[in-house]
Amino acid sequence: MASSMPIQRKKTSTSPTIISDSSDNDRKEIKKSPSLVMILLQGTLVVIIVFFLSSYLFTDTWTWGYNNKYTNWRNWIPRKEMIFTEEELAKYDGSDENLPIYLAINGEVFDVTGGKHYYGKGGGYSFFSGKDASRSYVTGCFETHLTHDLRGLTREQLKDLENWVSFYRDHHTYYRVGRVVHKPIDPNSPIPPPCNDASDKKS
Ligand code: HEM
Questions:
Q1: How far is CA 130 from CA 92, 99, 175, 180, in A?
Q2: Residue ranges per domain, the chain?
Q3: What is the best residue among 116, 117, 118 to mutate for testing ligand 1's pocket, by most ligand atoms within 8 Å of CB?
Q4: Strands 108-111 vs 175-181: parallel, antiparallel or unpaired
Q5: Pick from 56, 61, 112, 191: CA 20 to 30 A from residue 180's CA?
Q6: What distance in angstroms lies between residue 115's CA and the mean position of ligand 1's atoms?
Q7: What is the pLDDT of residues 123-149, one digit of tens each?
Q8: Rounded distance from Cα 137 to ligand 1 centre (Å)
Q9: What's the CA-to-centroid distance between 152 and ligand 1, angstroms?
Q10: Atom 26 in ligand 1: residue holding the nearest Cα
Q11: For a substitution probing ligand 1, which of 135, 142, 145, 202 has the most ligand atoms within 8 Å of its CB?
């Protein structure tokens, strides 16, 4: 009788340990096997990486050569619309290297700092910077029509102007920053006359 006691104690004392070990192992096994969500996330990540890497490999761009306002990260940042007076806008004409370059077209102001070689100091189109020169976009008079005065333009010219606005809106580098509030045009002032001087046009 006395000799069987320790055997019974041993059985009862080891039994809970065995159960505990197996449940730990079970837990470990559950942790080890990745969940469906993890598999999906990892799969998606791999697809995204392959997408961008192969785009760069084949097209030298990260977006398969697709470039427009949606590939311009600045358009994804919500920003407060800035309102400029004509005098305020004039400060952003590219003459101050520390300021961005802004231009306005049909009242909309765009940051065109990305096109510094066109719009910055000495650039071929620097006369557009710091102002709303809408009229000159459709008449080509880059000296006498640097104004927002659209009086007398044809329907076709106004359509051309809208295309230029879209050019800046949809650009992959430029982005809209706000609006310029123009001084009202005196209806009695003369409409800017057409320019016939060839030197006034881009050549
Ligand atoms: C109504 C007439 C015109 C307007 C409004 C106009 C406007 C512009 C603008 C805004 C740009 C810069 C594009 C950008 O930001 O990416 C540009 C670039 C350019 N334009 Fe014009 N343009 C006109 C006529 C011409 C003409 C007649 C020529 C050539 C004879 C010309 C040649 C160029 C060239 C070569 C560029 C590339 C940048 C440069 O070298 O300055 N453009 N144009």
A1: 5, 11, 15, 10
A2: 4-59, 69-200
A3: 118
A4: antiparallel
A5: 191
A6: 12
A7: 999 999 999 999 999 999 999 999 999
A8: 10
A9: 24
A10: 202
A11: 202
The rounded Å distance from CA 202 to ligand 1 centre is: 7
The residue-averaged pLDDT of 184-194 equals 95
> Residue 20, CB half-sphere, CA atoms under 13 Å: how many?
5
Ligand 1 midpoint to CA 105 (Å) = 15
CATH of 69-200, one of 3.40.1190.20, 3.40.50.10090, 3.10.120.10, 3.30.450.20: 3.10.120.10
Least confident range of 35-49, 51-65, 109-123, 124-138: 51-65
